[in-house]
């Protein structure tokens, strides 16, 4: 999944990126993605940015004259679809930023995206803005606030925190104390922290960067939950300096999550089908969308979709659904990796995980509801549906057994856990043949369409 997809970019945007922990890397990643798609992109600072960083994208157009700047950028876009610019260069090798007039002039050019870096962080992982920053033009349509997750557990001090005195002031904490997930969330959501200067009409997204292993993903989930609880719209967990820049996407939920979390497994390449299986049309909509809609109908507010193969196209098919997205960069290593990615995306309120296969469009909301109800009433740790004496999917597993899932390797799934704990298995009879029917091959799909 690409960063531009996770951010939910619209057709034409003015995007200002602020914060710490990989802000410039995020800007560069986003610019390269958009340019590779043929979009016309301009990148510039509004404060200061290293000349060497802009040169990673293109040799910048440098002039303090607004008309000359606009003319230079327009000329550059005739040669390439990615142009960088600034108003000057300091003796320290930093490009000075554009003022409001220059931003306005560029916004009137024939461009698709204007990407702006709105402050500095001296290489730190977390920051609070000084009085003169961030510089976010009023015409900005999207503000992305960045923080680096490795700040967790580090001292509230340099070099981990930029302007630690200001951060400590926002938190009411002592400098030098260890940074917690709650601290990061409070700083990012604070009107004088990560939300400072966001124009009233602009969208606001938080990017929690450097989420490169399970522990950081789990910690990032706690930060994301606190940000969303404080009124955040969307939080992206990413690793923008890697080939998999997006790992999870969390949306603000209107419904408070309950103890049952649903994980829709939709990462596979569908090799037996020949690819593209998740986007097959079922009752007039993509199969993956139907699976997620079914899960949301049964458990609103706590559904995670694990993506892998063609993640961007699959994510687009889920547009408008209130489900969180987890990206599994290791999906080719087998089903176990998707189980782990899904568990990492569930919040602490989830006591059980109900694993739904995206290629079983016949599963109904009633099946999910009955499994969840049986868990709450009977107290067993594994709940499995049965149709006419045959076990099927989805399968529900209690949090106490999750550590055993986290050590699975390769293309194995919940069956291994079921075999290891027969005493904890409760079967629930359901009137739904769909729990037994996967669409794995073109023949399976044709049979489904024919209603056999």
UniProtKB/TrEMBL annotation:
Classification via InterPro entries: MobA-like_NTP_Trfase (IPR025877), Nucleotide-diphossugar_trans (IPR029044), YqeC (IPR017587)
EC number assigned by the record: 1.1.1.328
Gene Ontology MF term list: nucleotidyltransferase activity; oxidoreductase activity
Membrane-spanning residues: none
Record's keyword annotation contains Oxidoreductase: yes
Keyword Oxidoreductase: yes
MobA-like NTP transferase domain residues: 262-423
Keywords, ordered alphabetically: Oxidoreductase
Entries under PANTHER family matching the protein: MOLYBDENUM COFACTOR CYTIDYLYLTRANSFERASE (PTHR43777:SF1)
NCBIfam families for this protein: selenium cofactor biosynthesis protein YqeC (TIGR03172)
Protein name, per record: Nicotine blue oxidoreductase
Upper classification of the organism: Bacteria, Bacillati, Bacillota, Clostridia, Neomoorellales
């Amino acid at each position: 999944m690409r960063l531009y997809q996770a951010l939910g970019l619209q057709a034409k945007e003015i995007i200002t990126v602020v914060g710490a922990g990989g802000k410039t890397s995020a800007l560069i990643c986003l610019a390269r993605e958009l340019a590779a798609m043929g979009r016309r992109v301009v990148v510039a600072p509004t404060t200061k940015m290293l000349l060497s960083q802009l040169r990673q994208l293109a040799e910048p157009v440098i002039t303090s004259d607004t008309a000359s700047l606009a003319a230079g950028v327009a000329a550059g876009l005739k040669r390439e679809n990615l142009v960088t610019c600034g108003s000057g260069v300091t003796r320290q090798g930093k490009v000075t930023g554009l003022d409001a007039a220059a931003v306005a002039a560029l916004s009137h050019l024939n461009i698709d995206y204007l990407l702006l870096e709105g402050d500095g962080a001296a290489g730190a992982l977390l920051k609070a803005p000084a009085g003169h920053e961030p510089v976010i033009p009023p015409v900005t349509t999207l503000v992305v606030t960045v923080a680096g997750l490795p700040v967790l557990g580090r001292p509230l001090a340099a070099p981990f925190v930029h302007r630690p005195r200001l951060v400590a002031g926002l938190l009411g904490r002592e400098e030098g104390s260890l940074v917690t997930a709650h601290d990061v969330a409070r700083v990012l959501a604070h009107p004088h922290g990560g939300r400072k200067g966001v124009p009233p009409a602009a969208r606001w997204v938080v990017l929690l960067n450097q989420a490169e292993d399970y522990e950081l993903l789990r910690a990032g989930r706690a930060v994301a939950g606190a940000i969303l609880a404080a009124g955040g719209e969307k939080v992206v967990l990413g690793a923008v300096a890697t080939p998999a820049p997006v790992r999870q996407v969390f949306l603000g939920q209107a419904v408070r999550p309950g103890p049952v979390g649903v994980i829709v497994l939709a990462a596979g390449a569908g090799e037996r089908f020949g690819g593209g299986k998740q986007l097959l049309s079922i009752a007039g909509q993509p199969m993956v969308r139907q699976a997620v809609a079914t899960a949301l109908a049964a458990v609103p507010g706590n559904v995670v979709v694990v993506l892998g193969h063609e993640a961007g196209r699959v994510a687009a098919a889920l547009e408008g659904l209130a489900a969180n997205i987890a990206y599994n960069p290791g999906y080719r290593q087998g089903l176990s990796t998707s189980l782990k990615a899904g568990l990492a995306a569930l919040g602490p309120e989830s006591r059980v995980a109900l694993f739904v296969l995206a290629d079983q469009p016949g599963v109904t909301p009633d099946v999910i509801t009955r499994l969840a109800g049986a868990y709450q009433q009977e107290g067993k740790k594994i709940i499995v549906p049965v149709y006419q004496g045959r076990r099927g999917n989805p399968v529900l597993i209690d949090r106490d057994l999750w550590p055993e899932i986290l050590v699975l390797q390769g293309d194995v799934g919940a069956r291994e856990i079921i075999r290891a704990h027969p005493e904890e298995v409760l079967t629930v009879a359901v009137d739904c043949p769909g729990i037994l029917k996967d669409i794995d091959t073109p023949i399976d799909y044709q049979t489904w369409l024919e209603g056999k």
